[in-house]
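Feature request, filed as a ticket because there's no other form

It would be nice if the structure record came with a short human-readable summary line next to the tokens. Right now we just get the raw output. Example of a typical job, pasted below so the devs can see what we mean:
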Amino acid sequence: MEELQAGEQVKSTPPSQNVGRIAGGAAAQADFFIPDLCATRPAVLSILLSELLVLVHVLAGSSLTNFDWDVFALGSLLVLWIVLLSSILLCRCRALLSRLNLPLAAFASLLVVAMVTLVISMLSQSFLAETMYIPEDVWWVLRNVLVATVLAGTVLRYFYLQQQLKLQQQLEMQARLDSLRTRIRPHFLFNTLNSIASLIISRPETAERAVEDLAELFRTTLKENTESNTVEDEVRLTRLYLGIESLRLEDRLQVHWEIDEKALGAPMPALVLQPLVENAVYHGISRLPKGGCIDIRVTLSGDDLSVLVDNPVPASIAPSAGSKMALPNVAQRLQATFGLGATLVVFPGEENFRVELRYTVPTL
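Raw output as currently delivered:
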């Protein structure tokens, strides 16, 4: 087994899933570098950042003991109106902006912010000049437009860099996923074909079923993951794999399943459970003369999904060589789908090896 300390969490870099660019429609909007500013989180962050910006501006021109609340109130009023109206307009125009090329989309976004700032500043001079001590000269308006445009350009640049980082992470994660999908060990294929060949004459029906299971296993592991995957799908794939391995290991391979029926419909990324079980077979059961039993438990408590794979290991045999990529790949793809709160922890022992993964199922 992989040499890890008890309870050590598999480390991974922040991952992401790859999403191809599709022009037009919802897919184009999903890839647009400006996020959906009408969503709750971006709206709240916009308000908080706006207030922080006003607070910094007031503190720069006054002291803590002589805080200018009038300037703070005026600044909050103007900035919030500009930020909220700009966010709403950019949100409404997002579908149209997503069809433009990058420079034109950025220019149009800056133009929206500049026009909103111009209108709000002029309305403030018209209706709030006397009560809020707003200057009535044009330079005050032009200054507001310039400051808003510069800040908006900085924010747009941040959005663009975030998108580029996300795309890079998506490509890296897709490369790892493709590697995991195609990493069917040659010895597994050869041993399976030899087992099938030995059954053709004595047990032709079993051999035929094994060929079908092998084809289904390869079809599932090599196909593009374009549809959502569930725990039930992963359990089915794992049973196919174990059925094929049982041809070679026969009675040496025993499996004890404990599946919570409530968890069957929960989402689970493709190739999460099967690699863990394959790891248990390859590093544990196949290296024990008398074999052993793999315990697989899947439970759902509230929104928390837990998967436990426990298998015996030989105590006196040196660890076998391997790429040691399965567990980190699983951890990365879990975090890619469910965030950094998803964990995969290993508990190696002298006689058994346990892997436990946990993540929170997103609620609709």
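Something like this underneath would help us a lot:
The chain is about 60% helix and 10% strand.
Residues 32-177 form one domain.
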